[in-house]
Amino acid sequence: xxxxxxxxxxxxxxxxxxxxxxxxxxxxxxxxxxxxxxxxxxxxxxxxxxxxxxxxxxxxxxxxxxxxxxxxxxxxxxxxxxxxxxxxxxxxxxxxxxxxxxxxxxxxxxxxxxxxxxxxxxxxxxxxxxxxxxxxxxxxxxxxxxxxxxxxxxxxxxxxxxxxxxxxxxxxxxxxxxxxxxxxxxxxxxxxxxxxxxxxxxxxxxxxxxxxxxxxxxxxxxxxxxxxxx
Length: 230
Ligand code: E4P
Hints:
The protein is of the alpha/beta class. The protein has helices at residues 10-18, 29-34, 40-55, 69-82, 101-110, 124-132, 142-147, 152-165, 182-189, 198-205, 208-229, and strands at 3-6, 25-26, 60-63, 86-91, 116-121, 137-141, 171-175, 193-196. The protein has a single domain (2-198), classed as Aldolase class I (TIM Barrel), CATH 3.20.20. Helices cover 53% and strands 16% of the residues. Helix 5 (101-110) links the parallel strand 4 (86-91) and strand 5 (116-121).
């Protein structure tokens, strides 16, 4: 595990999957809107199945569209039935701080054998509780944490230490990347996975000095070729 792509754009996912650098895909309702997914759950199902098929056996996270506990379980069961590599995203609590989500997470993992990615978390203590409830993945939004004036690195370090010390198997996903440095620094701090938007990959891959170096190699290669022809 290392890099997941945060996207529902099939062409983008295909492009980076072909390069062999992806270990999974994450989505959320905001990403689905941005990528133009329509027709309600029918449209979501179609795209989810396309992505899941494309990346199989790598994992795909799909997020439920409700915060009603019974509905969350119903939707999670539907989404998980679309493909064996789909796991379901549940937010750590509701929009008004409703805490029943933890029970939903526990029930999905333990009773229904559905992998859960607990999302929208901003600190280690939320992630620790989600891990105790049995979550397979715990997603902390590193960029949003930093946007609020805290350093996400401290949270990731502390969380990894706690998970390891208590024998909890949850994998830490850090999302919401903002700066090129984020991927390496968050992985180095103990994240199992960093999820990035497609455009972020060029940002961390392409280096001006590498470009200059390649330009020089190509120019000199042309000289060598010309001298061979002459
Ligand atoms: C992670 O799973 C989230 O989908 C995502 O990284 C959130 O990023 P944002 O804060 O840039 O919206």
